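FAQ

Q: What does a record look like?
A: Structure on top, sequence underneath. For example:
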């Protein structure tokens, strides 16, 4: 009888912790952060006693918040908001380190020519021999990118504007969502 009461008490305590943990997780997942990168750690601890022996049950959960694409930081040489893997709908990937280097193109470096227009960063990228270059366009979430071309035409933004995006190439065309890179992994 004593064991059943003790077991019932432990199960009741664990279910209360579980309910509290779920409520805390839902609260944290609905809040937004303007920081470039942040980590929220939630932990709860319960002490129970059984036959004069202390048992500690610890439950912890870590939630990793996605960094927000910081175009001013990128333009200034702070690439921390780019770190991670980005993928387009065709399966092509771009993996940035904290120095702005691309794992897929080790000789490519961010160039000095950049321009911010309508909250979008356009940046030249060149190889280390400086024999060629292309453009990268960094588009923060909730920003629509519809560039106007030399002939006065523009293409509609067909990408998922709820996410940070990257476009690359000589002539950036944003009307085909298959060529838009989205963040898929943050270390």
């Amino acid at each position: 009888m004593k064991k059943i009461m003790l077991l019932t008490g432990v199960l009741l305590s664990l279910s209360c912790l579980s309910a509290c943990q779920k409520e805390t997780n839902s609260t944290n997942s609905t809040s937004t952060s303007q920081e470039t990168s942040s980590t929220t750690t939630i932990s709860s601890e319960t002490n129970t006693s059984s036959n004069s022996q202390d048992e500690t049950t610890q439950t912890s959960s870590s939630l990793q918040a996605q960094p927000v694409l910081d175009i001013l930081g990128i333009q200034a040489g702070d690439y921390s908001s780019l770190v991670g893997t980005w993928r387009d709908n065709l399966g092509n990937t771009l993996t940035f380190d904290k120095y702005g280097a691309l794992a897929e193109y080790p000789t490519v470096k961010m160039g000095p020519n950049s321009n911010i227009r309508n909250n979008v960063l356009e940046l030249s990228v060149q190889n280390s021999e400086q024999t060629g270059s292309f453009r990268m366009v960094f588009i923060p979430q909730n920003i629509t990118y519809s560039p106007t071309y030399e002939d006065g035409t523009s293409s509609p933004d067909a990408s998922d504007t709820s996410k940070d995006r990257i476009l690359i190439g000589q002539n950036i065309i944003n009307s085909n969502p298959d060529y838009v890179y989205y963040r898929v992994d943050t270390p």
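Q: Is there anything notable about this one?
A: The longest strand covers residues 39-50.
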